[in-house]
């Protein structure tokens, strides 16, 4: 537990040092693409004319380099083949550095998958003085009773989502207020340790320092949900290539996260098998002609399939768009049904507002929002990431929600458990003993 706490603190200090030097890179390691953005911090908090600016509490930064490459060696959002992933990350980083014309040493990475699990913790302490100090906040966070979440798991996020002082609940920052008893609710997200270790090792092999880690579901929610949705309660569904991330926000904090191990690549492989065509051809047909709602016109709209197997009759076929939709729709329905099950398990129906926002590359299938509102039974909208200063036009689509969210996470991170100096004698005794060894090995 002490190792985990200190490794996260070390990454936070590294991130602050990189931001003071003025340049840091963010890396979204996905199943279908690896995106890299290079950020320059100018140290000012002035309001940007065409970005979201300091109004949203964003530190003054602009994107000076951006690159994407096809992801290799990643399955279900986790690293599967180290050498191929390393090569893909190097390609993306080098292209972004070339565009920014600057060398980058520190990266903040996000990944999906790794079997995320959410826990709600509570802690309570008596105040030593009348006024709540930073030390009191540290004490109440360390008083949270951490569950025994099993071996081979790693804490990725641990955020206080609510403070209560005496009988007043819903405080976001109790410091400086007067009371007798301070209590807190904390959201803790754990993932498979091996996925984190693989990613840390891969980044190190690319001659880079890892200055932060985040869950894709979390950072997608930061960028795709507008402020009111984060405040009143909303779910963000990040439909990626290998997995669909689910995160629920309330009072501007993530209170639940999970992932479904089915994504857009499964739809592509269904088309590939159903039409007996290679995967790249299936991906192109899905992108140009795909959909999930058939109309009367679709029987007559024919799609030419051009393959190169050498069998002329097999290569020069045509299928109707209705057939393509018939292949795609069951898989998309399956993904949405799984998402529905995750939302039900989280008690999403009890939130005051039940907005659902679809983002990620898979959300661009025509007609998806209508199908999602039937299955999820709520108000559903398609979300694009917030506008960030200097972001190229090519990187403003839903597929870049997690990369843009990672920029916002880097510039203005929410308070986490390890941002506070927890007294050593207050470390939870039994809870996090099986914490990480990789930090000692890798740093």
UniProtKB/TrEMBL annotation:
Among InterPro entries, the record links this protein to: ATPase_NBD, Cell_div_FtsA, FtsA/MreB, SHS2_FtsA
State any GO CC term. Answer: cytoplasmic side of plasma membrane
Which is one Pfam family of this protein?
Answer: SHS2_FTSA
Q: Which UniProt keywords apply?
A: Cell cycle, Cell division, Cell membrane, Membrane
Gene3D superfamilies the UniProt entry points to: 3.30.420.40
The SHS2 domain is annotated at 24-224
Q: Name one GO biological process term.
A: FtsZ-dependent cytokinesis
- Its domain of life reads Bacteria
Coarse class of the protein's main subcellular location: membrane
CDD domains per the UniProt record, alphabetical: ASKHA_NBD_FtsA
Membrane topology, from the record: Peripheral membrane protein
Q: Where in the cell is it found?
A: Cell membrane
On assembly, the entry states: Self-interacts. Interacts with FtsZ.
Which protein family is named in the record?
Belongs to the FtsA/MreB family.
Q: What does this protein do?
A: Cell division protein that is involved in the assembly of the Z ring. May serve as a membrane anchor for the Z ring.
Write down the HAMAP family for this protein, in alphabetical order.
FtsA
| Protein's UniProt name | Cell division protein FtsA
